[in-house]
């Protein structure tokens, strides 16, 4: 079982920055992959950024060059640095942790979400 607690959301003007944090209940070194997803009103949840443990990160085309995913093993925390925010980035952002069995993604854990609102 992995518990995830997000923080750092809020209201920001277009062009501003926010950093989201996701504190995990276990060492993130032991989690196979972690990522950030978002869901805007009336839309499906979508991947924002994801990083496989020991691998590279991948980003949605809409956030490439503006968002950066990173982790701090010592603090068991995943971050999402969001720069040059746009109104279309407004959504609830969710932290995700994947556990794999024999290389197959078998278990997903989610945080409660944190609201990000970007005003124009």
What does this structure look like?
This protein is an all-beta fold. The chain is built from no helices and eleven strands. Strands 2, 4, 5, 6, 9, 10 and 11 form a seven-stranded mixed β-sheet that branches. It has a four-stranded antiparallel β-sheet with strand order 1-3-8-7, with no helix packed on it. The radius of gyration is 14 Å and the shape is globular. The N and C termini lie far apart (40 Å). 28% of the residues are buried. The mean pLDDT is 96.
Q: Oligomeric state of the chains?
A: single chain
Number of helices: 0
Terminal Cα span: 40 Å
What overall form do the CA principal axes indicate? globular
- Percent helix, as a range, is under 10%
Largest sheet: 7 strands, mixed
Order of helices and strands: EEEEEEEEEEE
- How large is the share of residues in beta strands? over 45%
Low-pLDDT sequence parts: none
- Kindly state the mean pLDDT as a whole number? 96
Radius of gyration: 14 Å
Q: How many extended strands? A: 11
Structural category: mainly beta
